[in-house]
């Protein structure tokens, strides 16, 4: 599984397009709920020149407001070059599909979100030809959901909110609320949402907390990530068994050997070391045939 907040922040709209209705309501720019949604190609490359790709592109067809396009961009940091790209995306989409486009930018830090929120005026001061006005979802305006019942009301919105609040001091309570809601949700819906959160947290400190919650609260789910987490748990347990056996036999374990044992994530190798720990005359001897 690709571990990337960038992927999770926009791909969730592909998996749950109706999420945009909840997000737009939170942002104070409500759009009608779609009667249907079509996932469109994200390749905006022209015939000859520079390749351009929007992260996610959807067409919403509503009974009240007609049709419009939603381009979702996940933005991890300030990038002035992106402003011109976003303006290009919108004008190109309008020209190609003859539908009104909306740009939604999803961020995980407040500074980037505030930067992306600023309107960009294109044209001379005397006459602004175009104004870029992205909708922005980020930690500055996504709800902080720390109650399981509240998280259960809109699981997709709760998932996106958890991803955007990855660095929030209350992230432990946020993730606990979501895991509690997912625990009471059918596996076919809860599983992909749990995976998206893991993907969205990536290497942040909160990722380890979510891995623990998945291993405990969501232990009944079967997925590559959940199996990886459980393998890690088994590896840690086997490493502890090796150290206990050596300790009970009165064998000293130097720091280097201890770090090698506890740092190993290969269950089969640890099983082999455990078998040797029963008879090895020293801690170093369990590695003798390596």
TrEMBL record:
PANTHER family: SLL0800 PROTEIN, SLL6017 PROTEIN. This is Rpn family recombination-promoting nuclease/putative transposase.
């Amino acid at each position: 599984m690709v571990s990337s907040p960038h992927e999770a922040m926009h791909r969730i709209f592909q998996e749950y397009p109706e999420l945009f209705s909840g997000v737009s309501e939170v942002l104070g720019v409500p759009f009608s709920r779609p009667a249907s949604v079509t996932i469109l190609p994200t390749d905006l490359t022209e015939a000859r020149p520079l390749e351009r790709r929007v992260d996610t592109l959807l067409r919403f067809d509503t009974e009240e407001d007609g049709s419009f396009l939603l381009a979702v961009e996940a933005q991890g940091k300030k990038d002035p070059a992106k402003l011109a790209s976003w303006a290009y995306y919108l004008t190109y989409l309008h020209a190609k599909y003859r539908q009104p486009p909306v740009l939604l930018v999803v961020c995980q830090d407040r500074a980037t979100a505030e930067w992306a929120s600023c309107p960009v005026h294109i044209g001379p001061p005397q006459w602004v030809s175009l104004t870029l006005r992205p909708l922005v979802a980020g930690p500055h305006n996504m709800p902080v959901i720390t109650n399981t019942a509240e998280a259960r009301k809109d699981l997709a919105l709760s998932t996106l909110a958890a991803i955007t609040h990855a660095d929030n001091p209350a992230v432990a309570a946020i993730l606990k609320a979501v895991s509690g809601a997912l625990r009471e949700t059918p596996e076919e819906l809860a599983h992909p949402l749990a995976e998206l959160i893991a993907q969205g947290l990536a290497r942040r400190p909160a990722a380890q907390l979510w891995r623990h919650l998945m291993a405990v609260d969501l232990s009944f789910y079967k997925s590559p990530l959940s199996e990886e987490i459980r393998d890690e748990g088994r590896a840690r347990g086997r490493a502890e068994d090796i150290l206990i056996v050596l300790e009970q036999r009165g064998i000293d374990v130097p720091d280097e050997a201890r770090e090698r044992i506890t740092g190993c994530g290969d269950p089969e190798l640890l099983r082999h070391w455990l078998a040797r720990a029963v008879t090895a005359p020293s801690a170093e001897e369990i590695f003798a045939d390596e």
